[in-house]
Amino acid sequence: MLRLARVKAVVLVxxxxxxxxxxxxxxxxxxxxxxxxxEVHVTRDPAHLASVASELAERGVEHVGVVGGxxxxxxxxxxxxxxxxxxxxxxxxxxxxGTQNTIASSLGAKRASPLRLLRGMxxxxxxxxxxxxxxxxxxxxxxxxxxxxxxxxxxxxxxxxNRANGGRPTPLTAATVLAHAAxxxxxxxxxxxxxxxxxxxxxxxxxxxxESAKYVTIGASxxxxxxxxxxxxxxxxxxxxxxxxxxxxxxxxxVAAELPRVFAGLGLSSKVARxxxxxxxxxxxxxxxxxxxxxxxxxxxPGSVSVxxxxxWTFLHPKPI
Length: 321
Fold this sequence. Notes:
Layout: E1 9-13, H1 18-22, H2 26-34, E2 38-42, H3 46-59, E3 63-68, H4 70-84, E4 91-97, H5 102-106, H6 114-125, E5 133-141, E6 144-146, E7 148-151, H7 152-167, H8 173-187, H9 190-196, E8 200-205, E9 208-214, E10 217-221, E11 243-248, H10 252-257, H11 259-263, E12 273-278, E13 280-284, E14 290-294, E15 297-301, E16 304-316
Parallel strand pairs: 1-2, 1-3, 3-4
Antiparallel strand pairs: 5-6, 5-16, 7-10, 7-14, 8-9, 8-13, 10-11, 11-12, 13-16, 14-15
């Protein structure tokens, strides 16, 4: 049960996060650092997370720290938005703890351990320093909130990544899967075929559409980074009222030749991609179900999926202590 005393913040911890596996005593250490200023709650499953979020909303908790990776960030935002409803949303600190932490990095979280970031968060919430803040909207994909959406090769890559190493990917897994995919692509092997995940899709967005075709990937984001240094969504920070929509249609060699542009933050050229800023999009397939992801989690669309703008969140970026 949650304590009734007023606290500055509550920390939500995913027990399956990489940081928890690496350090089983992390939650205990975090509680010791929090003292009476914050509470730490290890959420057992989605139902428990929803229950905790509801109690936070009832108590009017104004700041929430999140320990976990990209999927944890998405799950926490979804639960909190549902629980708070029309109430003001809490500000957030992404305390990292996952295997990739792509969302946290895109939102400006410092590269440090969850415990050091927590100590910095508590210091800044105490009022002794002026906190660095950022406001960003998220995406709403069906009833799920997140920052990254993707089909095709992006979803296929995540599927292979999640199943690698017995379903326990490590920080090295992402680069390893990418290297194996690149080697497989040279010989058109089975690995690259499973990752490509080609499906015929059509995109309708506010003011236009992309015709039905087998796109390499269709992605949307309110943050620039896709992971592993790829800044595919280089226009994501241009607006608080629109997200960056990208549909990659070029042949594999042509797309691969432009990857240095993506690393440099220039994105893909019009030769291999169609892209725009929009507030909503509908992705559909004439062939039925298709795979997509939101942040770190995979889903299957029954034949279409809607992507729109979700609420705007305020993020605190503490200096690690």
